[in-house]
Every structure is written in structure tokens, then in C-alpha cells.
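Escalation from tier 1.

The customer reports that the assembly of four entities below gives different C-alpha cells on two consecutive runs. Tier 1 could not reproduce it. I'm attaching the input and our single run for tier 2 to review.
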Amino acid sequence: MSVARDIITVAGVSAGVFFFFAGTVGLLRFPDTLTRLHALSKADNLGLGFVVLGLLPQTGGLRDGLKLISIWMFVLLAGATVSQLIARTARQSGSGK
Amino acid sequence: MSAVTVFGLCAAAAVGLGLYGLIANPQPLRKIIAFNLLGSGVFLLFGIVGRRGAAAGFGNDPVPQALVITGVVVAFSATALAIALLLRLFQIAGSTTLNSRAAASPRSDPSGH
Amino acid sequence: MLPPAPALVTTAGGFLLVLSIVVPVAGVLLAFALGERYVRQVASTVVPVGLAIAVAVLVLLPRSDGHLVYLLGAWPPPLGVALRADGLSAVMLATTAVVICAVAIFAATDFRPQSVEARAPFAFWILLLAIWGALNTIFVAGDLFTLYVALELLTFAAVPLVSLDGRAETLRAALRYLLFALLGSVLYLMGTALLYGIYGTLDIELLSHRVSADSGVLIAAALMTTGLLAKTALFPLHLWLPPAHAGAPAAASAILSALVVKGSFFILVRLWFDVMPGLPGLAAAQLLAALGTGAIVFGSVVALRQERLKLLIAYSTLAQIGYLFLMFPLAFGASGKLESDQALAGGLLQAVSHATAKAAMFMAVGSIYTGLGHDRITGLRGVARALPLSVLAFAVGGIALMGVQPSGASLAKELLLQDTARTGQWWWAVVLQAGGMFTTAYVVLVLSHAFAPSDQPITLIGPAPLSRDLAALALALCSLFLGLLPWDSYLPVPYDATSKLFGIDALSKLLLPVLGGAALAILLSPWPHPLGSSAAWKALMRVVGPLRRGCLGFGSLIERGDEVLRQWSAAGISLLLVSLLLAASMFAAN
Amino acid sequence: MNIATVFEIALAAVVLGLAIWTIAVPDTYSATVGFIAYGLLVALIWVRLDAVDVALTEAAIGGGLGGVVLLGAAARLRDTEAMTTEGPSLIVRLSAAILSASIAAALAVTILLLPDPAPTLAPSVVANAGATGMTNPVTNVLMAFRGMDTMLEKVVLLLAIVGVWSLASDQAWGGRPGPRHQADPNGVLAFLARLLPPAGIVVGIYILWTGADHPGGAFQGGAVLASMWLLVIMAGLVDTPPVRSRWLRLILVGGPGLFLAVGLGGLCFGAAFLAYPVAFAKPLILSIEVAMLLTIATTLGLLLAGAPERSAER
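Tier 1 run:
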């Protein structure tokens, strides 16, 4: 049973790390604000989602699991808003093109 | 190498960088940032000290932790006060230089008013 | 683990120490909550209560064996925090209370909240009470971290006072002050962390039993000392002091110059004399006194070259701070420990007499400024006739500072001179005498301008309330008669020191600095004197002309050096250098 | 060398790299951003040092709110970068670098030479925890054993407010701090500012409540509440309160005031100043913490808002 849990964890966290890595590469290599933002928000949403998913089997109980999921939800919310604001500012100031 | 050694060297380096930035960076805002860096190095020092004093089931001596929490809040207040002074200075004088000679030249009537 | 020392138990009357902190702090909270209209009332309620507490400590201390202890929350150190008071604390508590009282009377007319301009009074009175609370905490705290918090409290209260009038120059001065003070307190905190890491306590009493000449302790001591020097503005770490002290409103300058710099100085005394008397070693003490000598020379010479009276007094503060540090090498005994209580008493007396005299002088200058609308030294002719009480207060404060009998400064000088003879360090006796002459020089300079007759009567532009001058005068007289007080229950002042204050011997000791000071004033001050057209003056100039030109050249060189040292990066480098030199000399001593 | 050590070395390297970037990068705005990233990673170091309370504080106050203050200032001063004076000469920078490096080296040696076994107060904190009825050792130190420091530090926060307010012009005195934020009422920021605060307030209170026995406390909770308040202000949904407002003043002195009052109660009726009677220790400490939570949140928010700039009417 614990082996199965560990496998899920390793798989989930590895997937998350992959997304974070890809997002970071995108942030550094993409040419303009909007595409960088795209890379970043992917990394945040999916990367953290996979990490949380991977960690869920390791939690002690329902309470901790809910805390983890709510952290992900908060990050989703904040990430979506901030991306929106940055994108709007970038388009208005013309640096997004 | 233990965590204490690694982060201890890190703390010492942060202190050195903070001192250098505080002295050598001409802009006040950069000095304030450097002060924060310096402060975080000193707080880490407390963390190292506390980590070495792990005992009684705690991974870190709670007394230095409490001192750091107090210190962080004081450092934040200092930052906020310094920034407020800086922004007000900018608003009134239009520049933020701390160099008294450069700043005193436009108005140098002897009474100072 | 040591057996619990008797100092780890609350003594009777220890609650007074709590009250000495809590009363001003409660005043801060109350004044803030009640708002602009009631700040002055709150302050005028708190000030007498605080004064009464200080007096009560003075009365109780000799009866409880010279020590008051209070364990906060009844937790004994090292877990808890203790408040402790000894003779030094009691004297400083009383001095602070007296100065704050006088400043409060002085400021009552200045910072009266009107409907429109409520900002400055609101900030001033709250900050005044906060400074009081912070200083009292510094004087009675028995824990190095509590001292750190108190030190920060003091800085946070002092900085906004500098920029109270909101001009760009004072904002700049306040920002410089804040940043440099923060640098100092971070260095202090660094040392605190190391000491905790080595001994597991920050309690002064416990540390004093545990410290040994460990390399970490010496590094910590060097860092903490440097941090405190930066906050005390000892030369060459004084970049922030002249603009901050000269730019603040008069009442605030009085507090900043008289009391605030003494706070960090007091912690330094605690650190060297109480925590680690055996560690610093003579070389480090000589270094401190050498920096003090630098402060005396730079501060005095630059003071003599100032055009504005407030800047002159600010530079005089710089010189007087240097004077305080001369006691460190004199306190060393044969065993290489800081053990002479007499030198310590002399240094502390000097701090007390400077606190009272300097506050009086800043207040007097504040009155002169309000009366004339300026404080140019060359424009002071006839002011003695127009504002006799203000000039009298300035004169008495100046005379007390010069070390004329029976002032506190004269007693302090006597004590320190005795210790120079005892320890055979004659060179510090020279510095002590020279410091007295320099002080005389700038006081004589100002007074000779103020007493010079004016061709046309001076018209005063501002009101001159009597209460302000009386407050300044009372404080100045206080400083002048400090030497007559019975110190022996608080400070180890030998009886024969006080008795030597009068007689032929004393008169000769008085004449030397006065004549030397007058000569220095003539030689070093570049400003034309009102008597400059008299025949006697011209004759004198023919004799000393070349010498005076040389001295003026030396003066301008010193002034330029001071300007360089007050650049931010130069001061920062000096700070690091001082800390490394201190560490090196401490390592050499052990 | 195990995997944890590798991770720690990597973490330290990234943190140091960010520290160097913060000091060395020419553009002030980039330096600020670098410092924020640095602050967040330092919070991770605190977790590795097993000091979760500090990690929370560092992330919330040191990196988070401190970063916001610096970022705001950097944005407002961005245009002045060109006109700032040139830096100090090479000799000055070189000597500053050498001296700073020697101090850092001395410090590093001292850290490596700290005595073994290290002194610690952890056992006596545990032994005396029964007096407060709470099991979070850090909260016990802050609120009981070193209560005086904590109370004085609250006064420091209040003085910072007085200092910031004292910078107002005489005309603006009593008015509202900071600029009025105008945001699209149907925009995404306003949406977030309506959605997040209820959850954020719950989180803040939870951090305070759990601080009795687990990592957390008034500072960390207060920082969360302050950020919720700032979010609502920045979205333009509410305005900053005028500084002359009586309720605002009361909230700002509430925390230290209650602390002082309880302390004085101990002086008059109990064992000592700041001593809590064992039976009521936990409720007393919690009520002080609740008052402090409000005070801290308001103080932090107002420190970020700055000096009063506008009259209260508009």
C-alpha cells in the first residue's frame, strides 16, 4: 500500500517539477511579456497542481489534504488575477507586442 | 556538511553583501534594500544558533526564534519609516540624494532658511 | 549552572523600575488614542509622575543596598527578563526626568496644538514621552535583547523629531540618521546573536559570570561596540549628528543632544564595565579614547568655524561626546580589567553635566532664534541687552560645560585627572585640559559676540515667553551646581574631590582654561569680531597675525577633513575599519 | 552527502546568487524584485532550520509586506534613476568590499567555532510551558517569558506610524493616507478583492488560533489580514481611513494597551508585572493576541499606505 502511495507521489511531484522547469525556461527564453506570462501561469497552475496531487497520499488525514488543496486553489486564484493584470498593463503600455 | 554549516556560511555572506551594499550603493532605496539583506543575514545567524540548540524535542531553540520574530517586525517598521521619509524627500526636493553638499548647493543662504 | 545569585530575586521597590518604563509608555498610548487636542494634557500629567518615580528610585536605592531588581513576569533569567538598577541607572533616570521636565516646560508654548497645525504638537509630545520610556528602559534593562528593542524604540522616537518641520534638509538629515542608526543596531544585534550562541543567555548579570576570552566573544564585543559608537556618533562615525541636531526644532535638539546620544553610550558602559570588564583590554580602550580625542579636536575646531549658532552647538556636542570616551583607558587597573569606579563616575558625571548644560544651551538658542529670526553668530550684537535671560541661560550653561567650579564638569574633570595620575597616562591629562580649553573657546566666542554693544537697538520679531527662559536657566544652574550634590550614595566620588573645588588651587585651575580658550577663540574663529575695529585689537593682530593665519589654515583643513568624513561611504568604511581595529586590539589583549 | 544536504547547498547557492544580484544589478526595480525572491527563499531556509514560526513571519512580513513597500517605492522613484548621482569611486568600492568581506569572514569563522554542545533554553521553555497552558514554545516565549520585549516592540510599531504620519503636510493632517485607488468595479482585481478576503480573514484568524499550540500567531495572522485589507483598498472598494478617526486610533493602541493593562493587573493583583495567573493564562494571552492581531493588521496596512495626503472629505 505504502509503495503505491510513494509511486503516486514520485510521479506527481516529478510531473510538477517538469512543468515548473518548462515554465522557468519559458520565462527566461520567450521574447515578450505575454508569452512569458503564458509559460509562467502554466507552470504555476499545472506544476503546483501536480505537486499537490502527488503529496496528497502522504498527508495524515482529510484536514491536511483539504489544506493542501485550498493552497492550490488560492494560488490559482491569485495567479489568474495577477496574470490578467500584468497582461492588461503590458498591452496598454505596448510592451506586449 | 550539516545544514548549520551551509546556512551559517550563507548568513555570513548575506551580512557581508548587505554591509557592502549599504556603504557602496549611492541611492537611498538601494541602501534600504541592503539593510534588509543585512538584517536577514543577522536573523539567519539567530536561526543557526537556535538550530544548534535543538533540544527537548524541538528542532530549534524557541528563544532565538522569538527574538527573530521581534526583530523582523522591527526591521519592517524601520523599512516602512525609511521609505516614507524617502518618498517625502522626493516629493519635496525632487531628488533623493543623501549627499548633503550636492543638495545644499541650490539654496545656500547663511541662515539656512 | 551557577547557583542563583541574590541579584536574581525581585527586591522591595523593584516595581518602581517597571513603573519608570510603563508610565511614559502608557502616556504614549493614551496621547495617541485621545488625539491632538489632549496630547499636551497627557504629557503634562505624565511628566510629574515620571519625575516622582525617578525621585523615588533615588530615595529607595541607597536603602536597598544600592541595587533594585525586578523579575518581569516573575520569570528568573535566563528564561525571563530582569530589570536592574544601580547607582548609574538611578543617576541617569533622574537626569533624564529633570531634562525632560525642563524641555516640556520649554516646549509648552511652542507645541501648543492649534486647530490647523495639529501635526507637529501631536508628534512632538508623543515622541517626547516615547524617548523617555526608551531611555528609562535602557537605564534599567538587564537583558541585551531588551536593550536592543529599547535602542530601536529610541531611534524610532528620535528620527521623526529631526524632520518635524518637514523641510527637505531636515528630511535628508533624518534619513541619514535613520539609515546609519539602523546600521549600528544591526551590528549590535549581530553581537547579541553570537553571545546567545556561545552562552545561552543574554542576561547581563549571568553573562558577566560566564564570559571568557573566547574568539567569538571578542568578535561580538567588537561588533556591538562599533554599533553603539555609530549610534553615539563618536568621531569618525558622526556624519548624521550635525545636520540632525542643528535642523530639529530647539526643544527636540535639546532632547537629541542631551539625552538620546547618552542612551547608546550607557549601553556601551554596561557592556564594557558590567558584561565583560576583563575582556576589551587596554589597547581597545586607548583606541576609544583616541577616537574621543579626534572628536574633541574635529568637533571643537569645526564648531569655532560655524556661522550658525545651532550648528556650533551641534559640533560642540560632537566634541563633548569625545570627552565621554576618555574615561575608558583611565578605568583600567593593574590587572588589565576595567575596575576603577572613579573613572566611571567621572565619565558618567560628565554625561550628566553635558546633558543638563547642553539642553539648556539649545533651549537658550531656541529663544534667541525666535527672538531674532536667525541664529548667525556675527549677528548677535546687542542680543544680551534684548534677551538678557536667554543669553544668561546660555552663558551659565556654557560656563558649567567649561568646567568652572562647582559644576559637574569640573568635578568630572577632577576625577579623571586623578586617574590619569594614578595610571600614569599623562597624555590623557593633556587631552582633558585641551578639551576644557576648546569648550571655553567656543563659549567665549559666542558670548563675546552676544555681549558686544550694538549700534542700533534690536527689534525682536518673535515673542519671548518668560517660562522658556526660566526653564533653560534652571537647567543651566542645575549643571553649574552639580558638583555640590552628595554623589557618594550613587557614584563612588571620593570626598576630597568635592572639597578641592574651591580655593587658590581651584582659581588657578580655572584661569588656565579660560585664558587658553580665549586665545584659541581668537586664533581659530574666522569671523570678524565686533571689537575688531578697536585699537587694542589691531595691536594684538599685528603680533599674532601670522600665527592666526596659520591656525585658520589648519582650521579650514580640519573642516575639509570633516566634510570628507561625513560622506556616507567614508563614514561606512570608517565604521568597518573601527570594528576591525577594535577586534584586532581585543585579540591582541587576550 | 545525502539528498537533504544537496538540496540545502542548492538552496543556499540560489539564495546567495539572488543576494548578489540584489546588490549588484544596476536597475533598482530589478534589485527590489530580486530581494523579494530572496525573502521568499529565505523562508525556505527557515523551514529547513526547523523554525516554522519564523518562516511564516519572514515570508509574510519580511519578504511579503516588506517587498510590497520596497516595490511601491521603487515604482514611484523609477523615473529618478537617471538623475541620481554617480556612485563612489573605485577605491572606495574596493575598500568597502574588502572590509565587508573581512567582517563576513570573521563572522563565518565565529559561526563555525560556536561551542559544542550548544547552550539552549529549549528544556526550560518546555519545563515552564505549563504556566501558560499553551504548547507552542515560541508563543510562550513571546507572550510570557519575554513579554516585555513583545510589548515594547508593539510600541515601536506605533512609533513607526507616528513617524510616518508626522511626514504629512500640515494641510493634509488628519486626512487619508496614500493615493485614492481607482479600479474598474467590474475588473478582475475588484473581483478578487470581493472573493478572497472572506477566505483570507478566516485564514488569518486560524493562524492566530492555531498559534497557541502550533506554528502561527498574531504577527503572521496580522500580516495576512493586512494584505487582505490592502487588496480591498487597491481594488478601490474601500478607502484608507482618515488618520484622525477615533476608532482607528483605538485599534492602533488596542494591542499594546491591553498588553499593558494585563501586565499592570499582574503587578497589582498577581505575582509580578506581566505574570499571568495560571488559571487564566491561556484566555488572557489569547485575548491579548486577538487585540494584537487587529492592531498589527491595521498598523501594517497603514505603514504601507504612507503619510496622510488627502483631506478626509473627498
